């Protein structure tokens, strides 16, 4: 119920008439959940206003900012801050960065609805839509420590064997020390866990059954 209400508020901010709300342009690939609905609304509005490239530029910049600026990320995700404080701060920050009104509306709507914690998943959903348009398959490698260039090149070469000839591999990396070692690889909607942490978990489960 809350998700539907939040989505309606965002759509009203992006499209001011009932007709435009009804004529939602669906992305070329399905995206799901609350984050999928926000990403779809943003994609639809950007398509209608012919600002898809500009919005994508905003979204990429926003993802980098969230990843590299710990204080900003903490501010965005902090549920204790008042809505008006967040709204005003976000509007000032991103107006100076010349973000499109569509991207600003997304951020304000998320702040008003208490949904800023879903910002990263929304960004990922939107990026997956854009990757699909370009014929890219998003491949994410999560490792316990940063991978060097030769290792990444070898991974990319191997991953190309899992996609169609007309598709391109878009490689994204992430570091998660809790894996201890090994990697977790996501190729589109396929998921392969080769981490040491998962092996330890499996071994512990076997030991518990024996005991």
UniProtKB/TrEMBL annotation:
InterPro entries found in the cross-reference section: ATP_synth_OSCP/delta_N_sf, ATPase_OSCP/dsu
GO MF annotations in UniProt: proton-transporting ATP synthase activity, rotational mechanism
Swiss-Prot/TrEMBL keywords: ATP synthesis, Hydrogen ion transport, Ion transport, Membrane, Transport
Cellular component annotations (GO), alphabetically ordered: membrane
Pfam families xrefs: OSCP
Places the protein is found: Membrane
Ion transport in keyword set: yes
HAMAP family the record matches: ATP_synth_delta_bact
NCBIfam families cross-referenced by the UniProt entry: ATP_synt_delta
Protein family membership: Belongs to the ATPase delta chain family.
Protein name: Oligomycin sensitivity conferral protein
Originating organism: Stegodyphus mimosarum (African social velvet spider)
């Amino acid at each position: 119920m809350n998700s539907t209400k939040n989505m309606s508020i965002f759509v009203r901010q992006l499209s001011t008439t009932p007709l435009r709300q009804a004529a939602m342009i669906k992305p070329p690939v399905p995206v799901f959940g609350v984050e999928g609905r926000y990403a779809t609304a943003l994609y639809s509005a950007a398509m209608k206003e012919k600002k898809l490239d500009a919005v994508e530029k905003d979204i990429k910049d926003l993802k980098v900012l969230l990843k590299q600026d710990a204080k900003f990320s903490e501010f965005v995700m902090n549920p204790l801050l008042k809505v008006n404080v967040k709204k005003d701060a976000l509007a000032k920050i991103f107006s100076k960065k010349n973000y499109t009104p569509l991207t600003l509306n997304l951020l304000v709507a998320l702040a008003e609805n208490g949904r800023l914690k879903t910002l990263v998943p929304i960004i990922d959903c939107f990026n997956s839509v854009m990757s699909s348009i370009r014929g890219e398959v998003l491949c994410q490698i999560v490792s316990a420590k940063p991978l060097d260039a030769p290792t990444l090149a070898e991974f990319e070469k191997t991953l190309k064997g899992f996609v169609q000839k007309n598709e391109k591999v878009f490689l994204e990396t992430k570091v998660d020390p809790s894996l201890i070692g090994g990697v977790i690889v996501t190729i589109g909607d396929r998921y392969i866990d080769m981490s040491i942490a998962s092996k330890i978990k499996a071994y512990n489960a076997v030991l518990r059954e024996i005991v």
